[in-house]
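Our preliminary data section would be incomplete without showing what the modeling component actually yields. Below, a chain of 506 amino acids is followed by its predicted structure, encoded as tokens that our downstream tools consume directly.
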Amino acid sequence: MQSKVSPRLAEPLAPEILELIFRPRIERELALGIDDLCAVNEAHLVMLARTGLVEPAVASDLAEALSGIRRDGEDVIPRDPAREDGYFNFEALLMARAGAETGGRLHLARSRNDINATLDRLAMRRLVLDLVEKIIALRRALLRRAEEFADTIMPGYTHMQPAQPTTFGFYLTGIAQALARDALRLFHAFHAANSSPLGACAFAGTSFPIDRQLVAELLGFDRVHLHAQDAVASRDYAWDAAVAVLGLAANWGRFAQDMYIWGTQEFGLVRFPDSIAGTSSIMPQKKNPVAVEYLKASSGEVIGGLTATFAILKGGHFSHAGDTGRSSLAPLWPTLRLAGNALTITRLVAEKIEPCVETMRQRAGAGFSTATDLADCLVREGRLSFRQAHHIVADLVRNALERGLKPDEIEYGDALAAIERELGHPLDISEAAIMQALDPGRSITARRSAGAASPDEIRRMIDTAHAEIDSDQAKLDALHAQLASARERLDEQLVQLRQSNRASSN
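Predicted structure:
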């Protein structure tokens, strides 16, 4: 028995090839529906008709058959592994409906190489825009909570040690700011993906007078991917998306790690409501932070999937092959969908997390987190160099720890003694200045430099961030409108093709 797709192969395919390579490939390719495959065929048909490469009657019959397949959906597509992939199974159905000769004419001046390269770019566009939309929703949620807690004092950490007082709103604003750059990188990835490989054929173009620009416009692409071999060989636009998602996964993973630690009994800075928690099968008292654990794990899964994509691509030649053209992106699609799911869960956590306001305030006063403010005070009021002031406060903190004093137990005399130990002489500085510098609330209010943690500056940054989100939303809406407009134009062209034959037959 010969191959079902070509008489070049005289032997039947081995069962292992059918079941382990081709059947999974077909299921993977058809898993998300056939809209993109229909669109690629429809745009190519319109171009063939407009350039006179197929006769009007043939074009009309093909348009009717394609319309019927789109209407009936992916369930009507056979999944015969002997036909190798989703495209050949689609073509088999088309030929069954339109007739073998008519159906076979649609493959003029194209190859599975440029078809699959185009399908990958269409899928990438859609997934990237979905990620941007979810990032925007997450940023809005973070900023709403940031505004709510702009005045909620908490300890800030470096090296996981108490560092300086901050606010919960300041922290959340920072996460939103990092996500804004992730959105920017994804917009760039969309632009990189939005060029049309169709018409490149196998890799060297065609002798037929096709119109690649028309096909690109009908599919909503910005431009033709000009060099035919580069068009089918390259997947570097996927690298752009992968790098963007790597950063995105790191950002939601770091946010999740903070929430995970802060939610422990030892830190006690945040609480997880029951709606985003789980429980134990044996320990009745347990409430487990399942949402943030999911986020911590998913960031690792995403990084693993993207690493697999890079590993497959790097070993291929600069041409089309099964590994670079098909397998290389196979780990990427579920990875991008997982990233979308993780963004949804991150938004839910951001909306639901409950800061323990009183504990945060108490912890901000502990751990000597206002030490830098006291050093700044000595510079400002005592005209010392910062290094001198730094040494004085370090001596004060060490001495307090040795004596078992808490930060709020330090007195004016303790500070004066540290000054004299380090300088060898007293310093004229008021008690009010010293004690105010040790107050976490005053510490935060005093930080008024651009991007600092004072509530007024936080609210200014929130306003700026909202404006940036509105701008990103407008860009996203414009891209959706561009694709929708192209789809409408393609639909109009298909209607004209179907009606032209009916009119001529009447």
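The radius of gyration is 31 Å. The longest helix spans residues 455-505. Preliminary results of this kind motivate Aim 1 of the renewal.
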